């Protein structure tokens, strides 16, 4: 996830990022989370980060054509 560096003459520097989320897969929902980060496929990252000339429907297609990892968790005591 790229980090953006914001700088201003009189304000302290700020580093930020954004994460696009969606409904969680069942294994994430089972832990009590109601959102999950969308994992964009590596071949689509360049187009997502440089969207000049990319249509809204193409960007929506990138979000739909996502990686689908399986998440595991355990309860730590």
Question: What strand order characterises the main sheet?
Answer: 1-2
The overall average pLDDT, rounded, is 89
The tally of domains stands at: 1
H/E series: EEEHEHH
Major β-sheet annotation? 2 strands, antiparallel
Q: What percent of residues adopt helix (DSSP H or I)? A: 25-40%
Work out the radius of gyration: 16 Å
What ranges have pLDDT less than 50 throughout 5 or more consecutive residues?
Answer: none
Number of helices: 3
Number of β-strand runs: 4
Structural class: alpha+beta
- State the end-to-end distance: 31 Å
Shape: flat
* Content of β-strand: 5-15%
What does this structure look like?
- It is a single chain.
- This protein is of the alpha+beta class.
- The protein has one domain.
- Helix content is 27%, strand content 13%.
- Strands 1-2 form a two-stranded antiparallel ribbon. Strands 3-4 form a two-stranded antiparallel sheet.
- The longest helix is centred in the C-terminal third of the chain and has 9 residues.
- The chain is flat, with a radius of gyration of 16 Å.
- The chain starts with a strand and ends in a 13-residue tail after the last helix.
- The model has no long low-confidence stretch (mean pLDDT 89).
Keywords:
77 residues, alpha+beta, two-stranded antiparallel sheet, two-stranded antiparallel ribbon, 3 helices, 4 strands, 13% strand
What's the structural blueprint in terms of helices and strands?
Layout: E1 4-6, E2 14-16, E3 21-22, H1 26-29, E4 36-37, H2 42-49, H3 56-64
Antiparallel strand pairs: 1-2, 3-4
